[in-house]
Design goal:
Elements: H1 4-18, E1 23-28, H2 38-44, E2 50-56, E3 59-64, E4 68-73, E5 78-83, H3 95-98, E6 106-112, E7 117-122, E8 128-133, H4 134-137, H5 141-145, H6 157-164, H7 172-177, H8 187-196, H9 210-229, E9 270-274, E10 277-281
Antiparallel strand pairs: 1-6, 2-3, 3-4, 4-8, 5-7, 6-7, 9-10
The structure holds a DNA duplex.
DNA sequence: CACTTGACCTGTCCGC
DNA sequence: TGCGGACAGGTCAAGT
């Protein structure tokens, strides 16, 4: 599912729902979903209290009173859904999802002392959860190489341009999808930001001007913030920590809008493939040759 | 080296 | 209706 805004939305939900709760049980299916050995789980997870929930890039960090952290990556179809002791009654808008958990996609179930639960659901099984000592989180290979947080004040246009220029041999879309260039952009916000800046996704980085990159920097920050405000994008699987969908997709200008009109010029939006990913563009606003 | 392509999985949708 | 193939919001390993 998720890119930065979706993970941020889950993080904010979990902050309200699970901080202060004590973990009483954990069940999981395969080592791939939750690879820690059972001894570590017994010692550092059971009985631990949730202290804080953080996000870095698309990774959730759930810090525990044992000075261990649960690192969670949702990849394409992962969900973290909290269900209180009092399950929603019939007729509640979230009833179909929440009251049926755990279901076939549930890979890990955390039980809290107050009889509430946190379910890690992941249809495609790409996601994972790791239990690590706090001080080893930053040693994780992904955390070592991941680029700057785009919504941090220090992420200026100059920083963005310098980072993107490291990838001058590839397309601008591949460059901004590269998590070492900047953190958190995925296929939705890459297409949305490039449309906003009127840059064709397949253009070589070397052929994109600094002025255009400055505009792209502004547009990426704009779409990320707008999406967080809308609770993220639900295209298919994504739901927040309460099992609710996000609404950014209703505000998307190009993503999944092939065959519809460009909101800027009215031209019909096209779908192609760039950087190995489905890519949405306005053929009038975003010109390939320059 | 830098960059691109496949693989990881399951489910759904579309064309025959 | 059934079946095969393409495709899906991410990231890594292997290939060129």
């Amino acid at each position: 599912m998720p890119e930065l805004p979706e993970v941020e939305t889950v993080k904010r939900g979990l902050e309200k729902l699970i901080v202060g709760k004590k973990i009483a049980s954990v069940d999981h299916d395969t080592p791939k979903s939750f690879p820690n050995d059972s001894a570590a789980v017994e010692e550092f997870l059971l009985g631990a209290e949730v202290r804080e929930v953080k996000r870095r890039a698309k990774v959730l960090l759930i810090e525990l009173s044992t000075d261990y952290t649960l690192m969670v990556h949702l990849k394409m179809t992962g969900q973290l859904v909290y269900v209180g002791k009092e399950r929603f009654g019939a007729g509640h808008p979230n009833d179909s999802l929440v009251s049926n958990l755990p279901d076939r996609s549930t890979r890990v179930t955390f039980g809290f002392e107050d009889e509430s639960h946190l379910y890690f659901n992941d249809q495609r099984k790409f996601g994972w959860i790791k239990l690590l000592p706090n001080d080893l989180v930053s040693e994780d290979p992904f955390m070592q190489k991941v680029g700057p947080e785009p919504l941090h004040d220090s992420f200026t246009a100059d920083v963005f341009i310098e980072q993107v220029r490291r990838r001058k041999g590839t397309s601008i879309k591949a460059a901004i999808l590269d998590q070492t260039v900047l953190a958190g952009i995925g296929n939705i916000y890459a297409d949305e930001g490039l449309w906003g800046a009127q840059i064709h996704p397949a253009r070589r980085v070397a052929d994109v001007s600094d002025a255009e990159l400055e505009k792209l920097h502004e547009e990426l920050i704009y779409v990320l913030n707008l999406s967080i405000e809308k609770g993220g994008s639900t295209d298919k699987n994504y739901v927040n920590a309460e099992g609710k969908r996000g609404s950014y997709i209703d505000f998307a200008r190009v993503f999944r809008r092939e065959g519809k009109e460009c909101p800027r010029c009215g031209t019909i939006i096209e779908k192609t493939k760039v950087a190995g990913r489905g890519t949405h563009t306005c053929p009038t606003c975003q010109i390939l040759t320059n």
